[in-house]
Amino acid sequence: MPQDQNEFPHAAANAVGGADNGDAPGVVVVAAGEGQRAGGALPKQYHMLAGRPVLIHCLDHLTAACPEGSPILLVIHRDMFDHARALLDEWGYGTTPLVVGGATRQESVRRGLEALSAAAPRTVLIHDAARPFINAAMIHGLRAAISDTQGAIPALSVADSLKSVSGTTVTGAVNRDGLVRVQTPQGFPFAPLLAAHRAAKGQDFTDDAGVFQAAGYGVRICTGSEAAFKITESRDFQRAEALVQMRLQDIRVGHGHDVHAFGPGDHVILGGVAIPHDRALKGHSDADVALHALTDAVLAALADGDIGQHFPPSDPALAGISSDRFLRFAAERVRARGGMIAHLALVLIAEAPKIGPHNAPMRQRIARIAGLSPDRVSVQATTSEKLGFTGRREGIAANATATVRLPLEAPDGA
Ligand code: MG
Predict the structure, then answer these.
(1) Cα(307) to centroid(ligand 1), Å
(2) Which of 116, 297, 310, 408 measures 20 to 30 Å from 36, CA to CA?
């Protein structure tokens, strides 16, 4: 792991495409917090939300909401560097530069800005990864309000009455007039904000607007979004999950079916798990009839052809390969459309081998390959009562069903 090495400077040339990048703002996404309040071993920005990590939701929404060519970099905790790199690769953000954060949020932002200075954007947006659901209207409002001497922050009105308290005792009323709730991203002219952060080193400010104002600049408010709430407590995940699910209203069910014949061998591979048997399954790949049926089920839900179309049996490069690759491919097609696999159900039809003892490892393995939790994967096995080709132990058949949820609209809608 590159301990003190930031990735941005050498990646900038590719990611940014030069300094004359029009008005595309630079974006610093701060994901360096340890986020212990939300519970769990991983910081909350790495938790799964409707089948995707929070951080990936955040990048999806930023990418959709920001002008094309906006250089986006991520500031992450030193201990999460390898994890974050692998995650970004897995979810299609392999070119997103990573910067190691500091001990405080303010220090992390400053490091992000320093790394971004190679790209020299005219303006910059500072955003917290724990607010995944930002939208194009927010970004548009911020960009319109930023000037050479003025920053802009999204704000929401305070609807509830406010009271001051001492412990559990109410001590007075607080006038709501003149108060707002503020969110991120916060937008600024790049060079003045970087200078302000350098000058603020060692001092403690609540946010970047505070740092910027301390340097003598102005800050305006723009319209925020209730959907762009910050995921802080574990209950926020329920709200976030509901929000994502609400968008995934295009619900499809796909069916897949496959058969492979037995040949000589000492094991079969089913659902990515090697199972000892006195025969093997014949096929061009590893002949994993279960993963083939599941792959076709997912592709069917997408109305996106079938396994033979995407991986022609005539392709010599596919000889003997692990069928993990097919199901992973289909799952990636779902992700690429902003959707999620909600459920996979597999039925294996065979007299032998016995599937029962391998059921749990198969569910785990299928879940891992397709990127969903094992409680959303069902594996069942049946015989055909000695009837037909499966009954005569000539081969194994598999049926699969995939439930896939896709968004009804483009992901900039929040
Ligand atoms: Mg097959």
Answers:
(1) 8
(2) 116
